[in-house]
Amino acid sequence: MSRKVFYSFHFTPDSWRASQVRNIGIVEGNQPVSDNDWEDVKKGGNDAIQKWINNQLHGRSCTIVLIGKNTAGRKWIKYEIEKSWNDGKGVVGIYVHNLKNVNGEQTSKGNNPFDDFTMKRNGKKLSSIVKVYDPPHSDSTDVYDYIKNNLESWVEEAISIRENY
What we know:
The protein is an alpha/beta fold. 42% of the residues lie in helices and 13% in strands.
């Protein structure tokens, strides 16, 4: 049985890249939201966005942060990471900058979003605990295959790390 996961990503620049990873089908992800639905959620303000995220995270065992050029530091990505970690979910990061977007373009590598968090109990950066994977390929097809071949084990490892922390 596949794990239920939540995908966290910067919507506008990385939704095409995220859809490629979601469509791998090895783990069961949250349903993609359409541009129109997301605009409706945003119209409700911060409370509506937070409620939508909380509902999406419910029943998930792991959050996969798909890291693009501008993912780190975004308000709602930070919220999703913090809530996932505090709720005891596995958390893992995957760089997706070398997957092509709808226009066939790749982008530059972004910063590690887990560097933004310091653990209260020991002062460690979350980035020293949460694993982040950067596929060692520049060809989009090879990057996709690398993610496809490793995604399930990365999710299991993230859940194990969180359970043992």
